Amino acid sequence: MMTRTLIAGFGGQGVLLMGYVLSHGAMHKGLNVTYFPAYGAEMRGGTANCTVTLSEEKIASPVASNPDILVAMNLPTFAEDHAGLSPGGACFYADDLPKPQARDDIVYYPMPIKELVKEVSPPKDFRDYVANMGYVGIVSEILGIDLDAVRGALLTHFKGREKPVELNMSMITLAASWAEENLEKQDPYVVQVEDKTAGKILMEGNTAGALGAIYGGVSFASWYPITPASSFADAVREYLPELRKENGKNTYAVIQAEDELSAIGMAIGAGWAGARSMTSTSGPGISLMAEYVGLAFFAEIPIVIWDVQRMGPSTGLPTRTSQGDVMFVRYLGHGDTKNVILLPGSIAECFEFGWRAFDVAERLQTPVFVLSDLDLGMNMWMSEPFDYPDEPMDRGKVLTADQLEELGEFARYRDVDGDGIAYRTLPGNEHPLAPWFARGTGHDESAVYSERPDDWEHNMERLLRKSETARELVPGPVLHGSGKARVGLIYYGSTETAVQEARDRLEHGSELDTMRIRGVPFNSEVVKFINDHEEVHVLEMNTDGQMHKLLQLEVPEQAAKLNSLTHNNGLPLTARWIAESLVDPKRG
After folding, report:
1. What is the mean pLDDT of residues 13-29?
2. DSSP state of 424
3. What values do phi and psi take at 9, rounded to 5?
4. Helices 113-120 and 127-143, axial angle in degrees (round to 10)
5. Alpha-carbon distance 526 to 50, whole Å?
6. 65-94, pLDDT tens digit by residue?
7. CA 279, CA 266: separation in Å to the nearest integer?
8. Residue 340: beta bridge partners?
């Protein structure tokens, strides 16, 4: 049985913490869980809600159009959201809130939250924070969530600090006891002990990507705070001290820069010096980084840039999800710039691409963008434990002093192997042939300034060959289906689970082949998939159909058979919308 709980109130009421605690508590009971927060840009005030979905089976979309349970923490929420409850649903609310027009097809559970807070008597400054734990205690009691599991979730949230845990548990325990004595269970929703989550982890995509970067050898990270990417840098800062020391000394540097321009500049400098270097940001930060990215592309400096996408244009909706940066990032930088993009579709892939992005960047000597989004990056997802990197670090074509001595010559931008990738040296190489001047201006094979037309054309032709080489270095697509269907569906990123549920919903699901793109530029498998199907839909969360346009640009001979399916309202796609759009493509 799948149960979707909507917790809603004002920002600062502890809505998200309550959802976090309930989701972790249910996971400890062995259930599959998703945690989907949604809130405004205000630090305090405004609206905030989160949806916690529990199920014995795998959960596709975290969105709940008609939740089964509502926890209403303020009057606007109570008035608006209880109308959307599913028939047979349950509504928990503070008893000092006036009840809207009652429905006879749902159960109401009034709760004396203010009276319980008085009984606990927390410090004045903590009353609002402790109050939300009253909801946790009562909802846990009615649903059957074990309080030991709830306590474990609090220990995780407060990083083992007993004092805040015990303060919150005093309210939870009191509220649960009150519910046991005063409320009669009248709804069908019970969290039963299952064995669906043994060995699994519950994590945000940003944390997974940060851990992947650490296991991939990141030694320099610069960043500037921006929603929804800040927690990526926070996770890097949190775990590096635990995982990256040598003889008791740190072997890394993490710097919060004064702005995004400084962050990308620092990252490029570190990448030039030989560090595995990265930054993380979102769309507005990418806008500021454009010129520096062009420098790294043309000077051929390896760096990794995580773009946790949010709604644009401009400031847009900072706390809503989107896939709106695809075209922008692919061609970021003036002139003939083509950037490499990795597109994770799960937290496991966030971890994998966290380390793999460095290998690709150093092999190609170029900026590599990893495009996540708010849904994948900031929401919590369940996963099997991550796979440790199964291959050694690929530092690419780096010449040592001994190799230079043997060669007898070195030209930084000469294509020796025919793949467009030149050899490089790193600072600290003491051989007299090693130094070279990194520049964003025109240059010849030896990195010497040049305005000669033939030097320019020769260099750009080599960069084009390198772009062709990149096709087989980025992660290949993931295919589902027989491969013989007339209709194909192309998608990418966080839409993965919703697409798979949509396949199950469609009666003709066996007649639909799907392909999830994981890297740009597109490799031969992507072209073959389009060739093999009469009709191909491209599904994405932006208004312009950016991946659709990118495929038309880069696979022009197949442009006519590509149809764009887009949905862009700030929320993750649902399996229902996808299935209906495939039946009637005009919807998209």
Report:
1. 83
2. B
3. -175, -155
4. 120
5. 37
6. 789 999 998 888 787 888 889 999 999 999
7. 9
8. 368
Which pair of structure tokens corresponds to residue 563? Answer: 């149809």
Closest CA to 204 of 253, 239, 164: 239
Mean pLDDT of the chain: 92
Q: What is the pLDDT of residue 195?
A: 74
Q: Which two tokens stand for residue 147?
A: 């309080």
| Omega within 30 of 0 (cis) for the link into 313 | yes
Q: How confident is the model at residue 211 (pLDDT cuts 50, 70, 90)?
A: very high
**236 has a pLDDT exceeding 70:** yes
Is the pLDDT score of 42 beyond 90? no
Query: Which of the two residues, 233 and 191, has the higher pLDDT score?
Result: 233
**Contact call for residues 216 and 356 (beta carbons, < 8 A):** yes
pLDDT value at position 509? 54
Q: Per residue in 496-515, pLDDT tens? A: 989 988 888 786 556 899 99
Alpha-carbon distance 491 to 562, whole Å? 12
Q: Which domains can be identified in the chain, with CATH numbers?
A: 3-182 (3.40.920.10), 203-383 (3.40.50.970), 401-470 (no CATH), 478-587 (3.40.50.920)
3-state secondary structure 471-514: CCCCCCCEEECCCCCCEEEEEEHHHHHHHHHHHHHCCCHHHEEE
Token pair for 484: 């013989």
Residue type at position 21: V
Q: Locate tokens 């519950």: which residue?
A: 202
C-alpha–C-alpha distance, residues 228 and 209, integer Å? 13
510 compared with 182, residue with greater pLDDT:
182
Place of tokens 């400054």: 125
pLDDT given at position 45: 56
| Angle of the 147-157 helix axis to the 15-28 helix axis, nearest 10 | 120
Q: How far is CA 524 from CA 28, 141, 474, 528, 545, in A?
A: 44, 55, 11, 6, 22
Strand 512-517, strand 519-520: pairing:
unpaired
- Using DSSP's 3-state secondary structure scheme, residue 561 falls into helix
For the chain, report the end-to-end CA distance as a whole number of angstroms: 31
Half-sphere exposure of 196 toward its Cβ, with a 13 Å CA cutoff?
Answer: 20
Query: Measured between alpha carbons, how far is 301 from 351 in angstroms, rounded to an integer?
Result: 23
Interatomic CA distance for residues 34 and 58, integer angstroms: 10
Contact by Cβ (8 Å): 512, 485: yes
- 8 A C-beta contact, residue 474 and residue 526: no
Contacts of 343 (CB under 8 A, 6+ apart): 370, 371, 492, 493, 517, 518, 519, 520
587/539 Cα distance (integer angstroms): 12
Evaluate if residue 524 carries a pLDDT over 60. yes
**Distance, CA of 521 to CA of 471 (rounded, Å):** 5
Q: Is 399 left (phi over 0), alpha (psi -120 to 50) or beta?
A: beta
User: Which pair of structure tokens corresponds to residue 330?
Assistant: 């692919």
